[in-house]
Write a structure and sequence with these properties.
The chain has nine helices and 15 strands. By secondary structure, the chain is α/β, with parallel strands linked by helices. It catalyses: 1-(5-phospho-beta-D-ribosyl)-ATP + diphosphate = 5-phospho-alpha-D-ribose 1-diphosphate + ATP.
Length: 282
């Protein structure tokens, strides 16, 4: 069986299980379950701490895993990402009190508090900056107030919590992270079970990003309509009973669907419909 690590808690857990369910895999019903076997799909799922997943995968005990890019890089494990999953996106940045520093070039001799010691230490070393890094779990904003550090490095979403603590973001982002599928570095790329798993997840990603659009239009406007809905290879076009009309079907990006419908209507197209795609293979 294919042995897969899945986050057991935190912001990665729910979306990861939801994506696996959409991909046709059974998922645990109770959060206390640590292992679940899906015999129909020849997969065994192990629910682990997100921070530990890269370590397990790099050991070769598990074939692949789902974790965050930030956790993968911070672990220093011998593992690599093979598919981006598009959820749990975050930006990792430095922050401090106004006037303390404007960026990493000013960090010399200072102390930086973070929960991601591996990422920060590497970032500083890559830039030749001599600064100390102290590891803290949980909220690191108070490290500056308590005098543990002059700088913090943490995940930033809206920046509200930093502003509330009297801090400001400085410098360029250290890292942009999201959920990824990982494998042990150098593992065979042609394992059919792994390839099937990746195809299923890629199908979910496409299904979430596209909708199927159907509409009727005059034959003389077909080329203009097709330019708006080119589909993947090309749209499906069928003649209608009424002479001079055709029916068109194509996949279109979900985020652009409303604009495309407006443009098609202005072109004279009618009976414009969109439907969700639940699964696909490209």
């Amino acid at each position: 069986m294919l042995r897969i690590a899945v986050p057991n808690k935190g912001s990665l857990s729910g979306p990861a299980s939801a994506m696996l369910h959409e991909a046709g895999y059974q998922q645990r019903k109770e959060s206390k379950e640590l292992v679940m076997v899906d015999p129909g799909n020849e997969v065994e799922f192990f629910y682990l701490r997100p921070r530990d997943i890269a370590i397990y995968v790099s050991s070769g005990k598990l074939d692949i895993g789902i974790t965050g890019r930030d956790l993968l890089l911070d672990s220093g494990a011998n593992a690599e990402e093979i598919l981006q999953l598009g959820f749990a996106r975050s930006t990792f940045r430095y922050a401090t009190r106004p006037g303390t520093a404007s960026g990493p070039a000013d960090f010399g001799g200072m102390t930086i508090a973070t929960s991601y010691e591996g990422i920060v230490a590497k970032h500083l070393a890559d830039q030749g900056i001599d600064a100390s890094v102290v590891h803290l779990d949980g909220a690191v904003e108070t490290a500056i107030e308590l005098g543990v550090a002059q700088i913090i490095a943490d995940v930033v979403e809206t920046g509200t919590s930093l502003r509330n603590a009297g801090l400001e973001v400085i410098g360029e982002p250290i890292l942009k992270s999201e959920a990824v599928v990982i494998r042990r570095t150098g593992a065979p790329t042609d394992d059919p079970k792994v390839q099937r798993f990746l195809r299923r997840l890629q199908g979910v990603l496409v299904a979430r990003s596209y909708v199927m659009m159907d509409y009727d239009c005059r034959a003389e406007h077909l080329e203009q309509a097709v330019a708006l809905t080119p589909g993947l290879e090309s749209p499906t076009v069928s003649p209608l009973h009424n002479e001079g009309w055709v029916a068109v079907r194509a996949m279109v990006p979900a985020r652009e669907a409303q604009r495309i419908m407006d443009d098609l209507y202005a072109l004279g197209a009618r009976a414009i419909l969109t439907t969700e795609i639940h699964a696909c293979r490209l």
